[in-house]
Amino acid sequence: MNKALVAVIILSFTLSSCNMLKKGRKGKDDGQIVGQKSSGWTPQRPKGMVPIPSGSFVLGQTDYDFTFENDAPVRTVSVSGFYMDDTETTNSEYQVFVSYVRDSIARTMLAEKAAELGFDPTNGGGGRDATGIAAYQYVSGSEDGESTPYDEWLKQNATGRDGGTGVPADQRKLNWNVDLAWNKYEYPDIDYVEVMESMYYPPEERFNGERLIDVRKLKYKYIWVDQEGAAKEKGNSDSYRIDYRHEEEVSIYPDTTVWVRDFNYSHNDPLHQNYFWHQAYSDYPVVGVSWDQAMAFCAYKTKKQNDYLSTKKKKNGVSNKVIDYRLPTEIEWEYAARGGLQDAPYPWGGPYLTDDRGCYLANFKPKRGDYIEDQGKGYMYTAPVKTFHANGYGLYDMAGNVAEWTSSPYDKAFYQTTSSLNPSIMREHSENKSVRGGSWKDVGYLLMVSARDWEHKDSARSFIGFRTVQSFPEGAKIKFKKKR
């Protein structure tokens, strides 16, 4: 062997050995517990959301109480920081949710049909080169796409498959890499036709032969845990995983008939026909969504980001996971709506509903019979988000446009009975939920940041929408918007 080559090999080994020793010494703990040092944590700001800093504020009706209900008495409370959508959830954003549910249902049905026909990664059922309905079979979760023992176990134990009853069928992995064919003349085979046609209204329910997706089939399943109830469990602490685990199945398509049902003797059918799906209304707030549907959207928003993060490389062997998205509590909503202003009646301050040029500062009903804020320039119904100025935190339409669901049940004594530290009250079976902010069909009083209202959780209205929030840890390094 060449002497020069031998010398290089020996030198390389010597250097690498030294480096290994140095690394070992650097991580030495001398047999003692040494925690990982951190220079702080900076979260990634979710798209379309703004940070609301922790703080204390005067909660409740600081101005004249026109209703004399006294359901918002004044008190000082403290609230932890959180991210909040800068606008109400729009039609186009909610359409992403609807499209996902539609596609996942179709892909699941195709995969189940393919499995019935013998196409499956656990028995060599076609693989990546499969065609027709076989291309939509369940796929392996392995990196190389080859079947694993876990895939075989899922197949044998999936509910409704091979007599198994232990694992829900939706635990198997769908193939999202193959596009769905929605054009009936592009269906690949007869089995595909059978599955896809079942997604549409049956012929006897169609008008003028028009093929439309049967929105009654669009149901989203998710699981949530009553953490507060579990934490207060006084009995068998081992039972909370079952007792406080809730499976929900929610029909998620908005109720477009609200535009007709909410108003008698009023011609609102064009909105019934077009408001949710027409591109002209893409940037308008989604309405006709119940509290349950808003909660389901939050669950999907969390799942969507977690699914993406699961494809990323783990850091220090720990998988990435996003803090859950949710609806704001009633107190969080009021705190954010004030925009950092103390004792102000409206998000922009007040006490007036117009600016110095006489232009209205929100979308609401300014006069009896007059639903348009500015003749020729205003909106008779909802307005596109970001039409009016944001408050001090950068939040739009915290007054007017559409009222917004909160996670809190409505209780007249809520403001007096809750803690002054992150006030909240959770009642699992409460049917009445707090709704805040006022809407396009409300008078100016309901636009006040302290004005309280409520609605049944299973009700959908043409004037109620929602926005989501996400908590972040105290001490997180976040750049907040400077108060005006």
From TrEMBL:
Pfam families: FGE-sulfatase. Residues 47-469 form the Sulfatase-modifying factor enzyme-like domain. GO terms for molecular function: formylglycine-generating oxidase activity. InterPro entries: CTDL_fold, Glid_motil-assoc_lipo_GldK, Sulfatase_Mod_Factor_Kinase, SUMF_dom, SUMF_sf. Signal peptide: none annotated. SUPFAM superfamilies: C-type lectin-like (SSF56436). Residues 24-47 are annotated as: Disordered. It comes from the Bacteria. PANTHER family: FORMYLGLYCINE-GENERATING ENZYME, SULFATASE MODIFYING FACTOR 1, 2. This is Protein involved in gliding motility GldK. The lineage of its organism: Bacteria, Pseudomonadati, Bacteroidota, Flavobacteriia, Flavobacteriales.
